[in-house]
Amino acid sequence: MVEKGIGARVPRKEDLRFITGRGRYTDDINQPGQAYAVFVRSPHAHARIKRIDKAPALAMPGVLAVLDGDDVKADGLGNLICGWLVKSKDGSPMKMGKHPLLAQEKVRYVGDRVAVVVAETPAQAKDAAESLVVEYEELEPVAELDRAHGAAALVHEEVANNLCYDWELGDKAAVEAAFAKAHHVTKMELVNNRLVPNAMEPRAAIGHWDPGQDAYTLWLTSQNPHVHRLVISAFIGIAPEHKLRVVAPDVGGGFGSKIFIYGEECVVLWASKKIGGRPVKWVAERSESFLTDAHGRDHVTTAELALDQEGNFLALRVNTKANLGAYMSTFSSCIPTYLYATLLAGQYKTPAIYCDVQAYYTNTVPVDAYRGAGRPEASFLIETLVDQAAIEMGMDPAEIRRKNFIPKTAFPYQTPVALVYDTGDYEACLDEALKLVDYAGFPARRAESERRGKLRGIGISCYIEACGIAPSAVVGSLGAGVGLWESAKVRFTHTGKVQVLTGTHTHGQGHETTFSQLVAEKLGVPYEDVEVIHGDTEKTPVGMGTYGSRSLAVGGEAIVKACDKIIAKGKKIAAHLLEASEADIEFKDGKFTVAGTDKSKTIGEVVFAAYVPHNYPAGLEPGMEEGAFFDPPNFTFPAGTYVCEVEVDPQTGKVDIVKFVAVDDFGNVVNPMIVEGQVHGGLVQGIGQALLEGVRYDESGQLLTGSYMDYCMPRADDVPSFEVVTSRGTACTSNSLGVKGCGEAGAIGAPAAVINAIRNAIGVRVEMPATPERVWRAIQSSPLAKAAE
Amino acid sequence: MYAFDYHRPASLAEAAQLLAGNPEAKLLAGGQTYIPTLKQRLAKPAAVIDLGRIAELRGIREEAGGLTIGATTRHAEVAGSPLVERVIPALAALAEGIGDPQVRNCGTLGGSIANNDPAADYPAAVVGLGATVRTSKGRSIAGDDFFTGMFETALEPDEIVTAVHFPKPEKAAYAKFPNPASRYAIVGVFLAKTAGGVRVAVTGAAPCVFRATALEQALAQSWSAAAIDGVTIDASNLNSDIHAQADYRAHLIKVMAKRALAAAG
Amino acid sequence: MAIAVSMTVNGKAVGAEIEPRALLVQFLREHLRLTGTRVGCDTGQCGACTVHVNGRAVKSCLVLAAQAQGAQVVTIEGLARDGELHPMQVAFSEHHGLQCGFCTPGMIMSAADLLQRNPDPTEHEVREWLEGNLCRCTGYHNIVKAILAAAQTMRGMAKAAE
Fold first, then answer.
1. Is the confidence at residue A506, as pLDDT, over 80?
2. Chains touching chain C at 3 or more Cβ pairs under 8 angstroms?
3. Model-level pTM?
4. Number of structural domains found in chain A
5. Which among B121, B222, B212 has a CA at the least distance from the CA of B175?
6. A623 and A698: one domain?
7. Which residue range forms the structural domain that includes residue B109?
């Protein structure tokens, strides 16, 4: 048994620097001679740029450069890309509107980049940015998703009806047939609200061109520095890939928003060369984060569930309109398609499912992956629909779910929407959650609340998601432009210390700790002797980064594979040193032993022999450093049951969450403390979506929720403490560790639990976010609640 | 922020002189609203006059049975003052609910009322308690006359709030329904039974704090929840925005009034 | 026109010529290179910039450096004494009260101020106190746990010192 190995609640290695204020984020880095960039942004949602006069800005003190879309064009820089090609029903490719680094001819959302001003100080850059003259001809905006189709205005002239694609998945005929013979159909219209990711660290970048080496360095807030390097090199064309170093130091949260390749980070790199090689720094103000970080979700959906007399699900039919915003972002096409509709089976054996999705451009901030990305939308839809069906059929919400669960004996299970679930035990999670929440005792608690003038409700959500992104061949066949394997290198030093280089990136997930535990377990070295290195393309092997809850299931497995190679090589050396046959060497707890004897060598001794190969197997390479890549054969499928209990104040409509139980199946767990922390954070983002957060635009496309004064971030007093259980895991079969991704589950499963609880309390469903005013209005329309009042 | 000159006067007289001599200057008290305004470049003062070091503007004392609170007294000082707790506990409770702990450690009474944000808490107390605002020009302005409109007050351009005198009410309480995002009041109701009668001041609901006279009359007749229930609040002059429509605000005024009534006893 | 400011930061006398518009957080980060104090918003809600000014938690992005003239300022870098971590720092790590670490210095400074005022807060009081600090990673669960644990530790230390 290895101390601080797999399964131990080890406090995090990364904590010391953060609790003492010595974390090093991009804005904490300053390069000698650096200049500062400020972006001039569009005040209009949709307008033609008639004229830009740089002269007044150039005349301001300290100004080094003013660059606009014409300069981008003149230098032949490429457009920002979308890395996933989605095809419409008719086989035609999605319609990409051009997305230049700085706007050319038109601006398409409030906040769109028009120009950059580079100056000696941030204040000078800001002063000069204000004096840049931009003349616009305002155009009619497409501000609302439900008016995009057939709108007089076109976000991109080349995209008719603002329709990027019209996509489908599933067997339409089978679904029609099932609906035709259904005993009951439950139908819902629902909105999945638009969210702002709001990582606490705003985006930032420092670009530097070194004229002596003709080499570039970009420090930035990234979840995937190698992907940034690839796109900036291959598509934008600022620097060749081997001459570009991308460093993502400590990063203050991502939640998807720092996956994407935005214009600003590219522009500062390019601008450094334009001013002769001085580093150029840009740090977003929070208001810029609201205006430019890719937003999340934003669906309008019609969903229908066909049931037989006993409450068995026969078929599911879904139509979704998805808002892409003004431009395609790096992965935006796959979010409302392959990461969404493929999850519509949920935990259920629904035999026939059909979904079609129309994705539209609007004059709003681009929309892309935000924690969960497609899967929260699917889970919310299924779990509110199933709940509604239970009410309409007069069944208990827990029992209608139980009745339709894929039984644990049915795995691996092929769903009608492409995925093959490997393992699961949905009933076990449901049972555990109902026990923990004391489901049977709810009526008594409701009565007690009623005596205090409060309406109490309970809501269940049985989510499933697909993560551990992703099998490359599968995603490739669906249109992805990249492989989604992961890499690792495990390097011993002479003295037996270990450096682990990973292609993933940690920005809160605790990889330095989890991966150290993994290596300590696999190689039998002390946890303290392992150092995890990430985030620098010059240090780490090419990797795909961190998102889609992939780092352990894919990146961790790459580390395991590298460890296996270390052990295999170590066996050869140990056999030589112990004068035994390689086949007789066993490795356990850091020792190579000749089977059945007490003859052994520690891994430290073997490593030393590898580096000082005086007595060494002939023909074997010296040294002890192994790399591995891992391409997963399948996604991982975390699933679980969340139960939320709310108390509603009928006077004000305010909802208090009084109880929240989360039982998750993450397979095997390396560090339960970290995994629980991931759940807590996800739950609050899910609760935030359900109760507090929602982007609002006005009719002219102005963002009304552009600061923390108007966009409601969950605070400590908005949420309760949680009961989280992660010990109900069924081991995943797609990696040797048996682990499933845990980073997004909370955000995926929580919204339906909250909304179902409110419906249970007041008798009507409230759209997200269920603000006090919305809940109060719903109560006014609910006979049940009115009676209680 | 735009550039500005900075002055740190040591006395009220010096501050008044600086202000009179520089029409483009602005006063800085706690800065919890003004500094964000400056940061967003929504204001461009030629100079900022920091009132933070003027001892005579700060402090809480008992006067004529009520309380006189200096203009630069911090919210946290009011919230934590045993004297305020004893004389007008509703005022301590209100101060404890302003902003967050860090903001309460800096924000001031004078800054709050001189700014007259439509959703600020203190204006409700000043009006609700029938307080008097004292100024550098020797004026004593009745609370009812002080708040003249959205971000507008009866202060002259070169006039500085020095203190507010709050008479002791018989009973009083403040109930607020906060905006979930900003935590400013969507509706805040300060209700008091005073020597001069019942006063009900409402903040957050309209462009400026106002007295809900219908509630006052009803409560003067019967200090009871039933009296509040019997009143119809006219929503036509109330704010409608993304956080709350006017009819919801009208409804909340009654709910908060009842909660304040229950708290006041 | 530059003005002179001087104050004591983490026990050391410091001074500089600064622009009047410089915020305290800019003075700390840019002049003193104390980058543990962070900027997460521009409207004063996030609290990542929380420091102690004359013993009280203050958002250093809502205070001009000039306003802190002569003040005693403590930042996250100055919270540990004589190489010993503050019990709040220890508790945040032990209870996993941080993930990405960006809001952490502000959280710790704010929480430390709470315990100066209220050595034995309830969970509800802790949650209310944190109104001025946003965290997007932890869901607050473990932050609250850490603060309650630190309170217990500090009460124990205070008792032992008696």
1. yes
2. A, B
3. 0.97
4. 3
5. B121
6. no
7. 55-166
